[in-house]
Amino acid sequence: MPEMRELTILEAIKEALDEELARDPAVFLMGEDVGRAGGVFMVTEGLQQKYGKDRVMDTPISEAIIAGTGVGAAMTGMRPVVEIMFCDFMTLAMDQVVNQAAKMHYMTGGQVKVPLVIRTAGGAGRAAAAQHSQSLHAWFAHIPGLKVVLPSTPYDAKGLLKSAIRDDNPVIYFEDKMSYKVKGPVPVGEYTIPLGVADIKRNGTDVTLIATSSMVQVAEKAADLLGEDKISAELIDPRCLRPLDKGTILDSVKKTGRAVVIDEGYLSYGTTAEIAALISDEAFDYLDAPVKRIGGMDVPIPMTPVLETVTIPNEVQVVQTVKGLFGRRYPNE
To answer: Which domains does the chain carry?
Structure first.
């Protein structure tokens, strides 16, 4: 067994960046304030001092330039890790990401690769209001040619980021800003986690909870509460939306017969709908109840904390939704 220690998600991401900068001279970081200031969330603190301004570069305040430069550098053989402070600001780089990075390999008949990683932060809960609080990962999962990663634990955050940096495809790596302080065990030394492999965070027999990013912690709390009522919940963390590990999700639902999908992104036209459709299409005969979805409220995120909290899924919603799948009777009664 490898030696373990406890890190936060922030520390795990920083360690992954540090190790990849040291391992491969083609890797470099760029973004607004990632160098001297250490990033808006201090994820890259100290890396410019360690690797120099040519490897950890501060950029102008222009998301289009940052992403476009990353695409160009990746096409010429470098492995840029670009930071867009908030995923809300990805709107300013959509042409570079969606029309250039995602399509270049296809448009050149495989002659050009774009090994680009874009790190960006999503999620509500900081009273940062409508333009700094969204969870927009479903947008990019909609685009062929992009890979989309959503870690929920320090272990996953480090292993997935290292794999993303080594991947020859453009990867959008979503960090939940409210989860940076989440702690967990991380091995000492080298390891990677393959992109597109889900993780069973918790085994159960009565219902499958499929949760992404920070909603994994919400689902874990709900599973504890459900256990008090003798409902055994299995928790699946996809970890990646593209590629999506359909097999792990379907195997779990076929075992439990019930499924609830939880994602902080807006409920309409989003991640929960895609996964629910997958289950309904490919595991319908195994279902004992309809697939249920829990997502962010379809409104701009309020700044007022009391109102903001209402828009974010919570464990009480999950518990009530699961109990509704059983009607008045719980399993094992």
So the answer is: 4-187 (3.40.50.970), 199-325 (3.40.50.920)
Residues annotated catalytic, as ranges: 63, 132
Q: Round to the nearest angstrom and report the end-to-end CA distance of the chain.
A: 40
- C-alpha dihedral, 272 to 318 to 13 to 75, nearest 10°: 0
The pLDDT value given to residue 333:
55
**Torsion angles phi and psi, residue 328, rounded to 5:** -90, -15
pLDDT at 328 over 60: no
DSSP 8-state assignment for residue 89: G
**Chain segment 256-280, per-residue pLDDT in tens:** 999 999 999 999 999 999 999 999 9
Percent of the chain with pLDDT over 90: 95
CA distances from residue 72 to 13, 101, 112, 195 in whole angstroms, order as listed: 24, 9, 11, 24
Please work out, in degrees rounded to the nearest 5, the angle formed at the alpha carbon of residue 179 by the alpha carbons of 26 and 183.
90
Rounded Cα–Cα distance for residues 286 and 279 (Å)? 10
pLDDT of residue 237: 98
Asked if 178 contacts 278 with a C-beta cutoff of 8 angstroms, the reply is no
Q: For residue 44, what pLDDT is reported?
A: 97
Q: Tell me the pairing of strands 4-8 and 183-187.
A: antiparallel
- The residue assigned the tokens 């991947």 is 167
Structure tokens at 213: 């990013």
Round to whole Å and give the CA distance between 10 and 241: 21
